[in-house]
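Here's what a typical entry looks like (VOC family protein):
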Amino acid sequence: MPVPADFTSGAPCWIDLVSSDPDKATEFYGTLFGWQSETMGEEDGTVREYRLFSKDGLPIAGLVRNDQGQFPDAWAIYLATEDIAATARKVAEAGGRVLREPTQVGNQGSLAVFADPGGAVVCGWQPEAHQGFGLSAEPGAPCWFELLAADYEAAVSFYTKAFGWRPETMSDTDELRYTLNRPSRDSTAGILDARDTLPAGASSHWLLYLGTPDTDTAVRRVQELGGTVLRAAWDSPYGRMAQVADPTGAAFMLMHARSGNSSP
């Protein structure tokens, strides 16, 4: 059965793939996760192709073409907000930047694109007809969302002020500094202190976890489909994981989520 997603303010509610080769991406994710694809109308009054991925008849993700090629292909994370205009103001006040002003998307809702103080791109979504993904914490669905923060303290402060996060420290040691949005059993996303693991001068970035029934099998399938393995599979307290990239370089995590526990 679908696991209901938590779309309260500040929680991840949608994902978009920005891809330079939509046809190749559609084939890759369709084969790997069993996603179906449907080409939608214009995204927002501009002539821009938008594809909707679904699984078992429920929406999972969107795909937009990376026309400009100014940035690498990547997955974009949307955080829910009850007032996108107010969130844009809070983003600026909290030290972030508004990259795309709030825009109405038909009757679906309103979006905006931001950059946090560490440079991570994150989107805001004020839902109307479209609430968000219809499956979570299941094979072929989003399982977790994690910010790899170059400046951990600044990131925690930003998401608290701009998106109303209720930070809960999961670990505060030299080996692992990690903050959750809300207590563990109800958490929706996390922030990892990645200053010692990111390349020198690298920006913060969001990382998407997608569920799989068998991580090792999925890793082999990624390679067969033209993707790459960025980090070989390993066992964690939250399931077996691996980091991979699709054929055009968009990175994501594979995760075998254990029943009743989807957060790493």
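The longest strand covers residues 97-105.

More examples are in the samples folder.
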